[in-house]
Design a protein that fits this description.
Layout: E1 2-14, E2 21-34, E3 37-46, E4 49-56, H1 57-64, E5 69-78, E6 84-92, H2 106-117, H3 119-139
Antiparallel strand pairs: 1-2, 2-3, 4-6, 5-6
C-alpha cells in the first residue's frame, strides 16, 4: 500500500499592504493506493486567515491580541442578553521568510499543511485512508479504480 499526499487547490490572498500573493486556504488529499485500487480523504487548512462565527467578546479580544492579527471582515451583534457576539475573519501578517506564490512547490505547501495539522492528525489521516482501502479490498466494495489512460 502506498500513501501519497497531494495539493488539490490553493486559494490565495494579497499580502497585507501589497499585491503579492500569499497562500491561505489549501485543499489537500491523502490517498492510499494498492494495485488498481485507491481510497482518498480530502480536507483543507487555513494558513493565514482565521474565520470565526458567533464568538463571545472575550474570545474575539483574544483573537485580536495575537501577534500580527488584522481584521478582514468583522460583524458585531448583541445577543438577547445584551452581550456582544462577533463573526468574521482575521488575517495574520506573515513574518520571517516569505516564498513568492510563483515559487511554491507542492513539497513546500504539503509541509505547511502537515505542520498546521500536526503530527498526530497526519498519522490519523494516513491510518484512516489505509484502513478504508484495506476494508474496501477485503469486502470487495472498491468503487474507485485507477489505471493508465487508454491513450
Amino acid at each position: 500500500m502506498t500513501t501519497i499526499w497531494k495539493v488539490e487547490e490553493i486559494e490565495w490572498i494579497n499580502k497585507i499592504g501589497t499585491n503579492e500573493k500569499v497562500a491561505d486556504k489549501i485543499t489537500y488529499s491523502c490517498n492510499s493506493t494498492k494495485d488498481s485500487h485507491t481510497a482518498s480523504l480530502y480536507g483543507e487548512v487555513l494558513l493565514v486567515s482565521n474565520a470565526y462565527l458567533d464568538i463571545s467578546d472575550d474570545e474575539y479580544k483574544s483573537l485580536k491580541s495575537q501577534a500580527g492579527a488584522i481584521d478582514y471582515k468583522h460583524e458585531e451583534n448583541t445577543d438577547t442578553e445584551g452581550k456582544k457576539r462577533h463573526t468574521g475573519t482575521i488575517y495574520k501578517t506573515t513574518t520571517g521568510s516569505y516564498t513568492e506564490y510563483e515559487s511554491l512547490t507542492e513539497e513546500k505547501v504539503l509541509g505547511w499543511v502537515k505542520a498546521k495539522l500536526g503530527e498526530d492528525k497526519v498519522k490519523d489521516l494516513e491510518n484512516s485512508v489505509e484502513t478504508i482501502l484495506k476494508e474496501d479490498i477485503d469486502t470487495g466494495n472498491t468503487f474507485k479504480h485507477t489505471s493508465s489512460l487508454p491513450f
